Amino acid sequence: MNNNSLIVAENIGYKINENKLFHRMSFNINRGEALHIKGSNGSGKSTLIRIILGITQPVKGVIENKSTKEICYLGHKNALKSYLTLEDNINLMQLNNNMMLNDYLEKLELKKYKDVTVSNLSFGQQKKLALLRVFLNNSDLIILDEPFVGLDDNAHLELTTFLNNELEKNKSVIFTSHIPCNINSKIIEIPQ
Amino acid sequence: MNNNSLIVAENIGYKINENKLFHRMSFNINRGEALHIKGSNGSGKSTLIRIILGITQPVKGVIENKSTKEICYLGHKNALKSYLTLEDNINLMQLNNNMMLNDYLEKLELKKYKDVTVSNLSFGQQKKLALLRVFLNNSDLIILDEPFVGLDDNAHLELTTFLNNELEKNKSVIFTSHIPCNINSKIIEIPQ
Amino acid sequence: MFRLELLKLRKKTRSWLGPILVFWLIMLAYPLTVEFLQDKLEIGFFSVLWIAILISMMLATEDIFTEDFNDGSLEQTLIKNLSFSISIVTKIFTYWLLIGLPISILSFIFSLGTTEDFLLSISIFPLAIISSYIFLNLFVLGNALSLNKGSVLGALVTMPLALPVLIVLGKGLIAIQLNINFLSFIFLLLGSLSIIIVVIPVVVSYVIKAHLE
Amino acid sequence: MFRLELLKLRKKTRSWLGPILVFWLIMLAYPLTVEFLQDKLEIGFFSVLWIAILISMMLATEDIFTEDFNDGSLEQTLIKNLSFSISIVTKIFTYWLLIGLPISILSFIFSLGTTEDFLLSISIFPLAIISSYIFLNLFVLGNALSLNKGSVLGALVTMPLALPVLIVLGKGLIAIQLNINFLSFIFLLLGSLSIIIVVIPVVVSYVIKAHLE
Amino acid sequence: MIKKFIHQFASPKTYLYQVDRFYSYIFLFSIITYIISITWGLLYTPEDFVQGNSYRIIYLHVPASFLSQSLYIAMAISSVTYLIWRVKLAAYLVIAIAPIGAMTTFIALISGSIWGIPTWGTWWQWDARITSTLILFIMYLGLISLHNSFSNHEKADKLLSWLVIVGAINIPIIKKSVDWWSTLHQSASITLTDKPSIDPVMLYPLIGSITGFFGLVICLVLLSSKYQIFIREKNKSWVKDYV
Ligand code: HEM
Ligand SMILES: Nc1ncnc2c1ncn2[C@@H]1O[C@H](COP(=O)(O)OP(=O)(O)OP(=O)(O)O)[C@@H](O)[C@H]1O
Ligand SMILES: Nc1ncnc2c1ncn2[C@@H]1O[C@H](COP(=O)(O)OP(=O)(O)OP(=O)(O)O)[C@@H](O)[C@H]1O
Ligand SMILES: [Mg+2]
Ligand SMILES: [Mg+2]
User: Fold this and answer.
1) What residues form DSSP beta bridges with A19?
2) Residue A155's domain spans which residues?
3) How far is E123 from chain D (nearest CA, A)?
């Protein structure tokens, strides 16, 4: 509860149609901290994230977001337009940092696919394209719902290094993952 | 090339729009064998699988499928109807083995969600539901494109045990995965 | 298989009830847009009826394949050991049963309500049945051609194919009213239908396979 | 933001060219379904015109939100620091610009071609512009209400709302022909439009938020 | 032998450099021809006895209608070349011509409609020639759309070529429609065998306008094929050098 905290959740609970997902969850995230939300399938990780984002309202408790900037979020769905090319999708994302963009396109091996329609890209390439929004964010809170899904080793490494860098820059990260990853983070576990 | 072989691929090559994915790939799979197709994102694993399935034609080479039964396939997409309930989706799959079905519903912790619309299920629950088609297959070749994506540890274990059992029953498995898994298999790597 | 298609479509209320409601809306709205006497109402009535059937069939097929394409079911059907064309025929028939048939019945009712001529209206019924089936097939083809969102191929191809049917319908109506060779129009339509029923599923299955490659 | 919507829609050829082509088809097909002399053609013409505008607006909005809903873009828009209602207004305007406006122009041309009455046709133009915008808004509401495939809520709600507009259009036409208080109809429509433009986006944004929860 | 020759000559690279050599001459020649014949036709020919001044739209209508079919035939020839000899350039030409063909057909339809208003009293008639021209227009659009809707360019090329060849039946139908069915539309006024049924005063500017229009459209086709080559071969080193 210090000045440094970004998200403060107190006693939040959620249920849908008599299906109690969690209750009395309290946690807080400071700047420069990462939070790994763990739990089995269907335990309510994505739901909790949507509560943090403010899309869903918790049934009980309060949650406070002290950041003034837009949250950078990537969920299970990529928010890509499958009928547009890679390049058009990047245009839609309105990423400003052009130099870095080229850098990341190179690193993620997407450069030569600029004119390929997204529906023709491979599963992992689509995820990597969606992650560009994260790599080039300018917010102080990054929320990722299973971002490692479908990534090959190279891209996986790229993402962990990036996130660790961001943490050092005093940004905060909240993520879920069933795939082990190398990020130094607090852990909360949603019980079944 | 013995009597026991199920899939025989010789010198197959594929390219799309001047983008050469692979060439001169040869491999064969015998009954009771597993094949792990490896490669980085966009290297052509899913494309190779679609060629094995006969959906896509290779540009060069021949591939022969000696199985007489339908292939059991689960790709990146779940082939579920998101507007139907879990139960209706199971009905659509036309799975016959009812006792086993209940067993697996129990094991995968899906039982209590029978009446929930698939679009409301969690990411992992949807994958598990799609995997029911695999768990209750009656074919002698199972092809899975990144089946471990989104599964929690319990479901992951369930799937590997199942696949290992199938292999012992002399069935064959072809799969791709960026997530390490415990299946004793041949490996082919598609070079970048 | 038919049972499965039926289950799928029935639960997707919007897809079958939507077109029927729209048909109903158009037929209800028609008299509102004209301010003429009862007898003049009939003049435009049948144009609107045919166009309404055309439209509702178009709406009915709007995602007949795109959905299966996007969620991966189409691939599953493709690797089944059964003819893809047959599965398309089944699908079309299911759609017709849940949408085309009710609309044909509604056509009869609306026609009776407007013209108050039972004989005329009862002749409208087979015309509506056959033409809805033909339109459904045409739009299925159109939908298959434009599985890809960027393409308007479907609309472009269906149009020239639908026009002759509309012409025949228009002429058939005159035939009914003048009480001449009405049956020959029915046979003409039935003839086209029988060709279409065979050809379209085959073409559609090729088109979809090409799209999936 | 408008620029982005425009880019998105423009590349999705089927979504904007499709409805325009369908409109064109209906208007072309209309004379084929009737076998009357030129002067009688006019009687049904305007009914068909209004219905065609209605239909093409319905087609235009058919996946205005479902697509964004399914691919997750809607969530992204929601967490942006900008008003969701405004983004809906922008979206509607883009759709109208790419579909409603061309259709209004086509209405003018078809009307001119059929009636050969320039003054009448030039009065049709504003009616078409305003009514296409109104219809678009109504169907956007409908689409938002039935984001979920199982629901026909959209069709059910839009219908009673569209009927009054059609009635006004019908009466407006009479007004033009009799050369009386045409302007008052335009004002009536403009009045409804101005209310709708404000109310619908707000309602729609609530509905969508409720769907996403 | 033939195959080797064709492949050598029809490499996109050679083609591109040849186009650059001749393009400006063709352009200059045709624009001058077209302007001269049009001014002549519009200003210095007498009014038509029956149609008054409205017939002057002929200088747009006839060349456009004529070209809409010629371009389709060119597409069909390219398609055959592609399917038999697998010449890539031919495939590029097919898809390069299609939009230009659609454009000229559109001009033919519009100019015909405009001409129809004073002469026939209607702008549209479901008569054989007009309908078949409309179908030609829709076919052009359909072919373009078909090509766009397949992500695999080679597949798209092959399919397109086959369909172009199948669709070629429409061409004789358009040509002969005025003879086979009695229609509102004019029958041929210029034929190779008979003496023209049109006054020489109108004939020469008409021929001139056809030639000029033809040249201009060829220029468009050249530009469009250049564009196609750039798109399809953009990863080849010589294209990068060229640009
Ligand atoms: C939308 C309406 C029309 C369409 C689609 C149309 C189409 C065509 C076509 C396809 C040709 C054939 C060109 C060729 O033989 O290579 C043609 C030629 C011609 N059209 Fe039209 N036309 C239309 C209206 C008119 C009208 C209204 C007139 C004048 C009354 C007219 C006069 C002519 C003449 C004089 C020729 C030249 C005939 C020849 O020398 O072969 N057309 N038109
Ligand atoms: N209408 C409903 N009725 C009953 N349960 C529901 C309903 N809608 C959603 N649920 C349940 O709420 C839970 C939502 O879980 P959520 O998506 O947050 O899981 P998750 O922890 O992200 O899982 P995963 O690891 O699979 O992504 C699921 O168990 C789902 O079945
Ligand atoms: N039209 C096209 N033009 C160029 N490249 C294309 C086109 N369509 C597909 N591709 C490429 O073909 C490849 C298809 O790869 P595929 O989906 O088989 O990859 P994968 O090995 O399964 O990757 P992942 O691990 O990400 O699932 C991708 O690199 C994709 O970009
Ligand atoms: Mg989740
Ligand atoms: Mg893959």
Assistant:
1) A16
2) 5-71+139-190
3) 7
- As beta bridge partners, residue A114 has none
Q: What 8-state DSSP symbol labels residue D96?
A: I
For chain A, count helices (H), then strands (E). 5, 8
- Output the six-digit token pair for B76: 């990146």
Percent share of chain D, pLDDT over 90: 33
Closest C-alpha to ligand 2, atom 9 = B120
- What fold characterizes domain E17-242? Four Helix Bundle (Hemerythrin (Met), subunit A) (1.20.120)
Q: Which atom of ligand 2 is nearest to the CA of A47?
A: 18
Q: Which residue do the tokens 């009656």 mark?
A: B138
ipTM over 0.85: yes
Burial of A65 (0-12, 13-18, 19+ CB in 10 A): middle
Is the alpha carbon torsion for B163, B167, B169, B172 positive or negative?
positive
What atom in ligand 3 is closest to the CA of residue B40?
Answer: 25
- How far does residue C63's CA lie from ligand 2's centre (Å)? 27
Is the minimum distance from the CB of A42 to ligand 2 under 6 angstroms? yes
Q: Which residues in chain D are contacts of E123 at CB distance < 8 A?
A: 113
List pLDDT tens digits, range D10-57. 888 888 888 998 898 888 877 776 655 445 566 678 888 888 898 899
Minimal CA separation from B83 to chain A, in Å: 17
Is the Cβ of A26 closer than 8 Å to some Cβ of chain C? no
Contact D113 E123 (CB under 8 A): yes
Atom of ligand 3 nearest to the CA of A117: 1
Q: How far apart are the first and last CA of chain C?
A: 25
Q: Note whether A146 and A7 are within 8 A (CB).
A: no
Number of domains in chain A: 1
B107 within a domain of the structure (yes/no): no
